[in-house]
Amino acid sequence: MTKWHGSRRVFLKSLGLGAAAMAASCSVAPKAGEDRGRPNVVLIMSDDQGYGDLGVTGNPIIETPNIDAMASRSGSMDNFYVHPVCAPTRACLMTGRYNYRTRVVDTWLGRAMMEPQETTIAEILRQAGYATGIFGKWHLGDNYPMRPMDQGFDESLVHRGGGIGQPPDPPGGEGKYTDPILLDNGKLKKFEGYCTDVYFERAAEWMSKCAAQNRSFFAYIPTNAPHGPFHDVPEHILDRYKKMDLSNKRFPQAKGHPLPDTSDQDKRARIFAMITNIDDNVGRLFDKLDEFGLTENTIAIFMVDNGPNGRRYVAGMKGSKTHVHEGGIRSPFFVHWPGVVEPGQSSDRIAAHIDVLPTILEACGVEKPAGLKLDGRSLLPLLKGRQVDWPERTIVIQSHRGDTPVLYHHFAARTQRWKLLNASGFGNETLKGEPKFELYDMASDPLEEHDLAQERPEIVQTMRWKYKQWFEDVSSTRPDNYAPPRIHIGTEHENPVVLTRQDWRHIKGRSWAPDSNGYWELFAAASGKYDVKLRFPELQTDAKATLDVAGVRLNGEVPKGTAEHTFEAVSVRKGEMRLLAAITTAQETKGPWKVDVLRK
User: Fold this and answer.
1) Distance CA 281, CA 550 (A)
2) Which CATH architecture has domain 487-599?
């Protein structure tokens, strides 16, 4: 059995803060030339766990012995980038393409639905004979044809939206990390236990079945932890952290990047407990792989989706989640593949989420589909330590609120040496004023302490040109490049369809606030009669319900104490349409919490 013990190492070569520790494999490597068949793949990605939230990256408090041990037996990329927020990272990861090519531009309000015509890694591997499974967070569309089960995954156990505790939660499952109600292959089902434990346990059961069938598998385990809310965390781990001093004075930090004082140690203890719970599950996962006899022929990858959810230790870097400085967009990237990727092998070449798909395809011996254009490149030669010609490249990370991207707004462009950025703020939908460019020589200044924009205008100009070329390219991928995909109703694949505030196009109020409203862009697959049920918090007074479907307006009276209203047998024609609903009282007009559309 694999042993999960050993000292922490500081894996910060790219930051100049330490050296990779001596690595030792706990597994017996296969004999040279031995054909083990196609490898399995397990891709683990946590949510809102930053680069510095591991012992292996120098965190002095968080207990992550299993991931630390995995890292010591793995190869790694020292300069690996993700987006500063989650859905864009997931789109890049699934497609090997920049998210702006996929219609995913934000995390909510219909901006996180991925174009169904995009080709996912699950689709490619399934076509090649792999079993494919997802266990956790999808966040690329909750309805047909954008669900993971529509996008290449045979097995799908997920929550809706961007996390548990958001408007898409099912009735009775609101905010429940413990004993959650999840979508099990498209059907709501209540589970026992903590959500992260549920994902890993289900993944292990599924992998066991694949092994029994002698079938190679791709298991994608994207946890929604340690994303908030934080009210429901593993208590036995939380108790340990509550006894500790978690203030920022405990964390080493680079000169010029002081951490702010924090008095919210309870919240921090809860986040740390969620992270340690992930680590416990990584340990159990490797134990299961050993038990099934799969460890030697399984590629296990660990990464995070963006910077940490709060300003805390990030190995001396600037920034956190939503930021385009290093602390917001750097991720660890560990690849465990006994006998193929040597423990301690690392590369300082810049890499990103777009590279994961081509890397896995090459490792699995699966050809890229003809005509599929990727932005990423395979990292396997670097992970194997080969001396290869590695052309210069520019990786661009851009993310901000809004329906469409804005030139120069909240972006970072990175070559092997230089990084140009404009930190104009993720929360702003438009660029206010002229861009304020920052330029850093990452070879000599990996912590972004010395802005050279004024000293090296010629580099700024070159980097601006490279960024602009990229922006124009990704923005012209398809007609109506940033229009949201349409949710389909009236199909055999999903009936009824549950519409939530996650995917509506916002028109009134503060986004998800109770008094807000929005509409859904739909495609009716068939003409006919549909029941449309509006669901909302129980009314404290009489109200009027209105429904506008493809320009036809319907009204209904809703009495006090009611929590739903159904418009029955609504005539709908096949084709594109817009659905807008509202509840109006004497005090306000607001949108429903959810809408169920049932083809009769």
Assistant:
1) 48
2) Sandwich (2.60)
